[in-house]
Amino acid sequence: MGTLPSEWPREGRAVILFLTIVSGVAWTVVYVEAIRLGFRQRTYAIPAAALALNFAWEAIYAARSVATEISAQGVFNIVWGVADVLIVYTFLRFGRAELAPWVTRPLFLAWAVLLGVTSFAVQLLFVAEFGWDDATKYAAFLQNLLMSGLFIAMFVSRGSGRGQSLVIAVAKWTGTLAPTIVYGGFGNSTLILGLGALCSVFDLAYIALLWRARRRATV
User: How crowded is residue 20: how many other Cβ atoms within 10 Å of its Cβ?
Assistant: First the structure.
């Protein structure tokens, strides 16, 4: 998400690079676990709207990384974009079964296309409004907060932890907390710091829900 300002001291840049790698690895764990659960449990493991926004974000910024300069964040963007293709496949393959019977296959696919087109449009509107550097951060944290809320909604709607795991929940929290420190703390952005803090509130609540469900299932 964004680039590291050249005026930051070397020691600070080293810490920020470390946090960028922590975030990148944590989110990669989220995606790998989502793929594993999706195929194993024949469902999708990331909420649909958040998945569409993530796929659009990663496709756009991975392409930009390839076209401009490959950074540590750029490498992760490319890896995430490839992983998202498989997660989107699990959604298209198994997602219809999660909906009401009146939602036919053609209607489901039309909804999926609308989600995808809308998500790409939203990402490009962020770029048009804020420019590449700011758009990547603002869009990422807003959709991250949306994802945090939608994970809880998924847990409630499914009535269990099916298609979900503590690995995803903890890795998502970690993967969000690290860039919150980078762009909210080091970057001195009240907006990002606030959005990141709200993500942590929802993420920790989601972790608690999954932990409670797991303990009750083993009793």
Answer: 20
